[in-house]
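Q: Joint fold for the lines below.
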Amino acid sequence: MTSLRGRTLAATLDRPLTRELWRLVDAQPASPDEAVIGPDRIGETLNVRRSADGPASNAIVLPAHLDYLAAGDIIAIAPAGTQVEVLWRRRSPHNSILLTERCDNYCLMCSQPPKERDDSGLLRRAAALIRMLPPNAPELGFTGGEPTLYGGGLVALLRTATQCLPDTELHLLSNGRRFADPDFAAEYATVNNPRLMVGIPVFGAESSLHDYVVQARGAFDETITGILALARLRQRVEVRVVLQKHTAPAIVEIAEFIARNLPFVEKVALMGLEMTGLARANLADVWIDPYDYLGDLAEAAQLLKHAGVRTNIYNHQLCVLDRRVWPLAVRSISDWKNEFLPECMSCSVREDCGGLFASSVKHRYSDHITPIFQSAIPAPPSSSAFSRP
Amino acid sequence: MRQRLTLEPAPGPLEHLPFRFERWADGRVLVTNMVGEHVFLSGEEFVALAELRIEDPALHRRLRAKHIIRQRGEKLPVELLALKYQTQHHRLADFTGLHMFVVTLRCEHSCNYCQVSRRTVNRTEFDMSPDTARAAVDAAFRSPSPQLKFEFQGGEPLLNMEIVQLVTEEAQRRNATEGRRLAFVIASNLALLDDDVLDFADKHDVYFSTSLDGPQELHNRNRPRPGRDSWERAISGVARIRERLGHHRVSALMTTTAASLGRVRDIIDCYLEQGFRDVFLRPLSPYGFALRQRQRRGYDMTAWIDFYTEGMDYILELNAQGVPVVETYSALVLKKMLTNAPHGYVDLTSPAGIGIGALVYNYDGAVYASDEGRMLAENGDTTFRLGHLAHDSYETLMTGAALLDPLEESYTGSAPQCSDCAFERWCGADPVFHHATVGDPLGRKPESAFCRRNTAVFRYLLDRYAVDPRAREIFRAWAAR
Amino acid sequence: MPDPTPIQPDAVLTLDAVAHPADVVQRAAYRFSDVITVEVCRDGDILTCKVYARDSNCLGTALHDLRAEIVDQVLRARIRDETQGVRNLVLAVAFSRTGLAGPEA
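A: Joint structure:
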């Protein structure tokens, strides 16, 4: 989830804000970190108003694209009230916290292109955010950049999350390289949270392909060594493979490699490209029409499934997937990001399909998006297959 | 500015990792790595590999992914090979998991391939005694294996249910303090199945394995009994077990005879009609009565290979039509080819499964290294008799030359031809078979029917896997069982 | 016991003993022991292989196959030698610790 931000339409504050994070409420605020959202002022606290509500005293006015914010959501507001950033949406099943934009890989299709600057403020903000989250939050992601660049700082954050949110599934995204350092892997393992899982991308069955895709020599060795270290420490690992121009033709080989060398991983995510960041900039270098790898993707997914590795396919429309793997397809594109094309309107499985990223619709999508007609479908996959990632 | 990496492999010398090869008639070369992963190369690709002059980046990637080559000094391939190798072997330390109890030699059938001395129904001096049974249970629990399978055989075990019950109850009593996973199977012709047996099986979670050679006339011709109704009784026994205990509580095994050849489709159809989804296309064993009979009903392996090939073609056809039938031996081989998982089949392992994988406790208290070893003894050859429960300690039984010599001599890692063989990781040692057929535990591979049979199976599976995506998927599903 | 009358071999192969060590040739010969038997003797740099065919009709094919197999066995010996070190290393690592405990990994 890319964090959404915007410039406020108006900010009429008594004094600069002394805190950054605010939980939105629609009733009398119960604590100093709460602000009332809506046109009606309640008490003297900060009021967050929607674009059509117009300005008021001790209030900020959201830009129209952030009008969807509602009670329970958590935002960051700049001290002068001029900028707003959405950090947590109560109604979304997939919230994640950006910890840093620094990274030691440089993937050709990276959706969060690395920036080399100290942004450790994000780590501190993350700790503050975690303390404000509802304990019944089902899931929380940690993303970057490369979060493990914080070393012990990341481990401390994960410990905080474990203490504050013992029932929340924690999903850390990492390139896995730092775990090749046995001391760091051991430190990570001391968090000892059975709901913590790390998602690690693998882009080849050997170093020349993987290192090329991530543009870092030695990355494959460190990543796989890291995965092995985590496995020895009984840590939960998900392997992610993004299907792009170079990885898609090798997907069966990559699946074979995972099945034979890393069969202990908890799950594998086979993911379609999102047209943001470097993927857009390097389009010619990374784009492949999913229809062209339809057969290989199905073979790879089935191979992993038979090897006992739980496998799911993300970010692919049903019409570009082999029917045999429809049960593995997840409607992962979050609600406010998925779009359909005009031709999708007559498709009989549209309800079960994740549709397309808005960015894909804008920049590049398969030439083979076509509606599926009822008579052509075998028994539909059970709805329980369409679960959260 | 970052230096842009290209898809070319990093410069630097390459090294071979341990690999073996076998040439195919069409010019392709099969290459297998140290843990039995395989790849087919063209003639030129193989030369490039042999000489380490690999210019094609795609070939480079394939060979590195399969741990056939590495960059000089690269550590990760060693780490991964070691993990895979260790996974494939880690069950060895569990030691003997299969314990066969020959509770009686008595049987009311007179199967013409029977590898056990037949005795009439009434001679109870061929029954295992309670003392022997208890001593055998003791011996079984000496094995450190976390799972112990107790398999009751004969003759016909239902003719000595008293001992079957004694062993089962004694094992469960012992297990209260041992905490192993126990399994009980009765290998029976089911002709004498009754409610008492079913009650007992229900109470103690006992499984059944029965003989089903094929359609009625084939089965009954192979397996005469008074009343000539072996097939009918087997089928009816199966139905009763399924109804009372569950569909999965009974499995069937066929024995192949000369009469079976040419009828593999009928046999498979019979299995499907009777609700079985697993068929084991076995070769004829060379032991016991089959050898003693003057009229050699045997056949050479060529005919069996045709039988297997036709059977497998049919099975793949059926699978393509949505009928999920599995050939048991092929599934086992595929598990070895496609995974690192240990498989627990004692007749296709190296070191051999004799003693260290399975033990046989005979009705008379003698202990044998394998079922076939016991059959040889019934015909006067006691080579594989390890000792006797009343006279020999567990240590004597398991560390005597009778067990250790054939284990060592048959070990494929050091056996002539096996040690070079591209299929070796998938194959096994069968010292008893070779002793019975050629008089030594190793045999000479070019003349070995065991080698011929397994080579045929490997080649069939490899060829289908390479060219047929649907067979590939079916095989991967089988390997996962 | 008197020596039996020496039987003449059906064919004799002469090979360079350095390029074709006796062990390699014997391994090759073993593969065809169902159709031929081979007596190998070395004299300095010459390796002499006396070939006896069980069935003289198969001799031509057997000799051709034998020569091809000798070439392959030379390669096998080279690979074995080259990779013996790393093979031992793999085995040492494999059995140096319990590794990934538990699952059928």
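Q: Anything notable?
A: The mean pLDDT of chain A is 91. The interface with chain B takes residues 106, 204-209, 211-212, 215-217, 220-221, 224-225, 228, 246, 250, 253, 256-257, 259-261, 263, 295, 299, 302-303, 306-308 of chain A (CB under 8 Å).
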